[in-house]
Design goal:
single chain; alpha/beta; Rossmann fold; 3 domains; binds nicotinamide-adenine-dinucleotide
């Protein structure tokens, strides 16, 4: 099938590459000339495990091409995915200007039937708004608008896309439904179903999924806070409840808050949607508050140990991306942590396996950028763990102890076992 993907970020590039991998002809469109040039030269502009191999293969075979021109990109496409940003607007609601702007541009370009698919995370009612934007200049026979939210996780995006738990399609058009069924045939089966529903339910499904996952994290963070007070070990509690079939083990890891480009903005947007419909979504409002508090926990703990004024103290920071296996730092807890520590007077030596360049573009010369995790420890008083990269979990505790001035680790992600730490003489 001929597919155009508009917006070639974390979602669009993975979507385009994976559809090319299953034998489709895909053209990716982005307004970022620099990004398009990179891709044309065979460079993957984001860090995503496994992406480069299939990107290169499909780029070289000619299945995957790139352009900055919307007109050229959609000319031969029967299917157009919109994988555009939907950042929070000033009031917290999803900013639809990218999506509606492109819909309007498309309305002036399209001359034959196209299925236009919202892959961006968009509030309930957006399919109708995109339809209205297209209808301004276009006969409704020439297009259908479909909701097809994306559930991939950064860091596992290729696997998640190729082997999804389910694919959700929201459409009331039989014609579009048949096209989408054919497109997704290689990806779905009895245990990974294609779920077809109305547009509004499909749009809501994405927000409900992200809000529920964030709720689990914040719930466990509160359990962890209480465990500290009552003298229980939250890791034991996590294992104790996660082995219950009704609960399951995932998204129960406490830590210094969730970040990323999705959970924080999607929860805010759902609270906003609820408000627009006269409903006050109390659980989600609390989740946002808990997460804000949680994000500053590491700074508090460091200050509890060294005192409020951290002048003269050097802290090594391991992990800057909002989670492991990505270079994405949007809404990352590292940003809150480092700002708090700098404000208190500390010097920071930081390291992340993938996100250094992004952090440099925000913090400039305020930080020392180590070239590896051990270099970050040199001359540091203590170590703070902000992102739970596997290589940090496997670090040599003896070496850490020998390098740090004090035997203290502030483990913001509970990656080390307390007993093991005690054996090495850590505080
Ligand atoms: N990142 C995730 O893990 C994830 C997962 C599921 C859903 N989503 C949703 O998918 C959407 C996209 O997210 P993302 O993380 O891929 O965003 P992103 O910021 O990584 O990528 C968006 C891309 O769109 C491009 N763009 C902006 N305006 C454009 C225009 N007019 N024409 C063409 N390209 C344009 C940008 O240059 C950028 O490359 C959002 O709604 C997000 O909530 C994201």
């Amino acid at each position: 099938m001929n597919i155009a993907v508009v917006g070639t970020g974390y979602v669009g590039l993975v979507t385009g590459t994976c559809f090319a991998e299953t034998g489709n002809q895909v053209i990716c469109i982005d307004i970022d000339q620099n990004k398009v040039n990179q891709m044309k030269n065979g460079i993957v502009p984001i860090y995503e495990p496994g992406l480069e191999t299939i990107f290169t293969k499909n780029n070289q075979s000619g299945n995957l091409t790139f352009t900055t021109s919307l007109k050229e990109g959609v000319k031969d496409a029967e299917i157009i995915f919109l994988a555009l940003p939907t950042p929070p607007g000033e009031d917290g609601s999803a900013d639809l200007s990218y999506v509606l702007g492109v819909a309007k541009d498309l309305s002036k370009i399209i001359t034959d039937y196209k299925v236009i698919i919202n892959k961006s995370t968009v509030p309930v009612g957006t399919a109708e708004r995109v339809t209205a934007a297209l209808s301004e200049n276009l006969n409704t026979d020439l297009f259908d608008v479909v909701s097809n939210p994306e559930f991939l996780r950064e860091g596992h995006a290729v696997k998640d896309f190729l082997y999804p738990d389910r694919v959700v399609i929201g459409t009331s058009s039989e014609k579009a439904k048949k096209i989408l069924e054919k497109l997704y045939e290689p990806f779905v089966n009895e245990t990974s179903p294609l779920l077809i529903m109305d547009e509004r339910s499909s749009e809501m499904t994405k927000y409900a999924a992200n809000s529920y996952l964030a709720t689990r994290i914040s719930f466990m963070n509160e359990i962890a806070n209480l465990c500290e007070k009552v003298g229980a070990n939250v890791d034991n509690v996590r294992r104790g409840i996660g082995s219950d079939n009704r609960i399951g083990p995932k998204f129960l890891y406490p830590g210094i808050g969730f970040g990323g480009s999705c959970f924080p903005k999607d929860i805010l947007a759902l609270v906003k949607t609820a408000k627009q419909y006269g409903y006050s979504f109390e659980t989600l409002k609390t989740i946002i508050q808990i997460n804000e508090i949680q994000k500053s926990k590491l700074v508090q703990k460091i200050q509890n140990y060294f005192g409020k004024d951290l002048t003269g103290k050097t802290i090594a920071i391991w992990g800057l991306a909002f989670k492991p296996e990505t270079d994405d730092i949007r809404e990352a807890s590292s940003i809150v942590t480092m700002n708090g520590l700098l404000e208190a007077g500390a010097s920071l030596r930081v390291y992340d396996p993938a996100a250094m360049e992004h952090i440099k573009s925000i913090f400039g010369d305020k930080l020392f950028y180590a070239s590896n995790q051990n270099e970050a420890l040199e001359g540091a008083d203590a170590l703070g763990i902000v992102t739970e990269w596997k290589q940090f979990k496997e670090a040599n505790l003896g070496e850490i102890k020998a390098t740090l001035k004090e035997a203290v680790i502030f483990d913001g992600r509970n990656i080390y076992e307390l007993e093991q730490m005690a054996k090495f003489g850590f505080y």
